[in-house]
Design a protein that fits this description.
With 112 residues, the protein is α+β, with helices and mostly antiparallel strands. It is built from 4 helices and 3 strands. The two termini are 18 Å apart.
Length: 112
Amino acid sequence: VIAMPNLDSLDAQHYGKYWVGLDAPRHLYHFTPKSFAALLKKHRLAIVDMHALPLDSYYNALLSEQLRAAAQGKSGGIGAVIRAIVWGSLAAIHGVIPEHASSVCYYVQRIQ
């Protein structure tokens, strides 16, 4: 079982360089479901199932709003919270399909 942020998610595209999923040192490598499957295949592994982690959409949006505000020398405030709720909700809806989710939980198995 491997859980990680999804570089193809709606919130990743929206926040760009301020997306918290890019935050090092927690995330040194970044994948889309397709690129992760390709990496696994090279090592005789395969994704057997995957599902979205919907609450991560809100968490990622809130932290990304804070990161963007700090980078712009702003405090964020209530506006950042409202934007995070809106973008978190949009990302959660978009993430009903796991390949588009903010964060994905992968179930991986060795290929015989």
